[in-house]
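Tokens as discussed.
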């Protein structure tokens, strides 16, 4: 294959995070500490993973940056929006994810990351009380204000490129409305008419990012970029979009473990998942309307891995339930329990129990880094629209449901997609050989 015309990663890369809470500050602090040689970017595929390229005598295993031109950590400049005015250092301390000794070495840099006023509508996150909020008359005014923020940040920091990452709380569920979300023209009209029911604040962020030539990543289960109007915007601006929801704890386990059941041709009677979480995300998800948004994304994982139509004897009418419970004492240390009822030879029942005591932001931070760097790479490679190769990092992968496309949730199939995209951008042959 000929090497794709991937533009070099020259100049500074601005990373604008929507939300300056636990996930964003853990991400920022980690990158800054790694740059100083004081920490390791454990969990980051772009920093650790190697991909096989070539076959036979030509076979070799290379880091991503050896295959394609990746932005370096030293070139990243951080900015943010948030409803609370605390700077990144204050927020990192308040979130209590990282120990103070692991934050203080980069205190000076974190203190300079002061959040811009957020484009916010409390109806979409009733549990948040912050007042660092823009005064916008309409959704279109929100878009224009956010576009100005992006332009000003880019100029003030001398950035050659920008990526916008949603690391804020889950909004209430916004069902897809064909009349508003079906075309870009209809969405723009709804923004100008201040249709607050169908246009979430997150849609204003996504539109503004794309309009300013910045890839947009949706790290929550919001329907923000999962609508035809936003796909059209991404095509028009030739910018990548990725989403939705960081695949951190329980869904990571589910997307990796369900293939074991399917590959071994064991049957499934039921899968019950429950979580306890005490951070800001847990607080917001304690609101039923916000939880429903998360529930939709978490429930979608199994159905494309263990498919009744493919194996009716094994996967017909299994029961799948997901629960999230706000439990303040745990803060960011989420606990996920899974009870899996399976059956085997002659229908005899068995059970599997999984208890994952994870740290939500510690798992999310490397995903943020990988999604930012790979979205920037995709933009420089001329890839635009839905970036399916990034499904590996996301809980509910984007797909064109208008064409009855089935999303790929199988972790190892997603890994093949990721590797092949890197190979192709680097001018190597795509394949599915296990290595």
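Sequence:
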């Amino acid at each position: 294959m000929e090497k794709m015309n991937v533009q070099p990663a020259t100049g500074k890369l601005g990373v604008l995070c929507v939300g300056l809470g636990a996930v964003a500050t853990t991400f920022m602090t980690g990158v800054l500490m790694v740059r100083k040689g004081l920490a390791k970017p454990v969990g980051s595929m772009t920093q650790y993973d190697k991909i096989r390229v070539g076959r036979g005598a030509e076979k070799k295993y290379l880091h991503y940056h050896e295959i394609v031109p990746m932005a370096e950590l030293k070139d990243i400049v951080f900015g943010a929006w948030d409803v609370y005015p605390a700077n990144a250092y204050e927020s990192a301390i308040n979130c209590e994810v990282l120990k103070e000794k692991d934050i203080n070495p980069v205190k000076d840099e974190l203190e300079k990351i002061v959040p811009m006023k957020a484009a916010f509508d409390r109806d979409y996150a009733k549990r948040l009380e912050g007042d660092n909020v823009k005064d916008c008359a309409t959704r279109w005014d929100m878009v224009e204000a956010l576009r100005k923020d992006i332009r000003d940040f880019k100029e003030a920091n001398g950035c050659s490129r920008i990526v916008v990452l949603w690391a804020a709380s889950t909004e209430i569920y916004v069902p897809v409305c064909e009349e508003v979300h079906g075309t870009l023209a209809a969405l723009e009209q709804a923004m100008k008419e201040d249709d607050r029911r169908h246009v979430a604040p997150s849609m204003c962020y996504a539109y503004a990012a794309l309009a300013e030539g910045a890839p947009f990543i949706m790290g929550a289960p919001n329907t923000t970029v999962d609508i035809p109007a936003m796909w059209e915007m991404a095509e028009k601006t030739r910018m990548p979009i990725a989403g939705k929801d960081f695949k951190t704890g329980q869904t990571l386990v589910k997307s990796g473990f369900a293939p074991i059941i399917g590959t071994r041709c064991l049957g499934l009677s039921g899968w019950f998942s429950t979580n306890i979480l005490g951070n800001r995300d847990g607080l917001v998800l304690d609101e039923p309307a916000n939880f429903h948004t998360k529930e939709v994304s978490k429930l979608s994982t199994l159905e494309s891995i263990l498919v009744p139509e493919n194996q009716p004897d094994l996967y017909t009418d299994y029961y799948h339930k997901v629960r999230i419970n706000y439990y303040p004492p745990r803060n960011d240390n989420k606990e996920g329990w899974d009870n899996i009822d399976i059956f085997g030879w002659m229908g005899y029942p068995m059970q599997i129990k999984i208890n994952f005591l994870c740290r939500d932001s510690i798992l999310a931070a490397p995903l943020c880094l990988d999604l930012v760097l790979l979205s920037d790479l995709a933009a420089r490679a001329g890839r635009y629209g839905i970036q399916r190769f990034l499904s590996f990092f996301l809980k509910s992968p984007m797909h064109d449901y208008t064409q009855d496309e089935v999303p790929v949730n199988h972790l190892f199939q997603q890994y093949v997609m990721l590797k092949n995209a890197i190979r192709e951008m680097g001018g190597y042959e795509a394949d599915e050989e296990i290595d």
